[in-house]
Amino acid sequence: MSAIDLERFRREGYLILRVLSDAELARCLAAADGLMSRERFAQPVFHYVSFINPQTAEPTLQELLHHPVLLDTVGQILGTPLVIDNAAFLGAAVGVRYRQGWHRDVLQVPEEQIGDFMFSPAWRHNNVQLNLALTHDRAFWAVPGSHVRPNSPAEQAVFGGTKHQSPVDRDMPGARCIELAPGEAVFYNNNLIHRGYCDFTERRRTCHIGYHCTRRPPTWHFYSHSPDQFTPDYLATLSPRVRGMIEERLKRQREWPDVKASYRSGLVPDA
Ligand SMILES: O=C(O)CCC(=O)C(=O)O
Q: Would the CB of 196 count as within 6 Å of ligand 1?
């Protein structure tokens, strides 16, 4: 696989790459439409759905977790071995209004523990998040370069009195919509100021996947799936490769059971 533009990723905080062939795209889109046609997703609202949880598992989308382009790209950014942080499907029908406030992915961290040191070039952020679009995606917005600096006074004014999430429907200086064509993914440092926001004129079918590298402690975003639901009976239903990835995740979660232990993990030097 070819070398990615790491310097650009570090400067801008994101990178867009074509990931899926036409055949892979058609197969994944059919699977995604099948997932969204289930009774439980009939409401015309925004759906944020784990595709590894037993109740909403989707085998074709799960295969994406070990897609060579995803693993190779994230591996170049973080190093290897990689462990899955999250695996969610973002789905919306035409006409849905989707509104997130501006945020960095530090929502699990208590406000008083969010320090400017987390948003500096010295912070080894052990998490890459990606959005892999199966339809045209115009719902992800970000402020390029904001992952390696604290909020400017103008940005802080948009956030209001919080470091977590701004009120919705606020303009953010310097923000841009990161448009994706079907089959493309944006790989991003989720310390970027970003949000999901769209009035959908085309259905959204996007996979939202995160990884970290086991050579450094995980960050807070690792803890989003409860380990209890991955019972041996459920694991036995998965493909061997996906089962192995989830077992690695469970092992890692046993090593790092407390999210609080990760708050300062980014300052640990490379192994
Ligand atoms: O909808 C999106 O693309 C953004 C999702 C997101 O930022 C989040 O869930 O934290």
A: yes
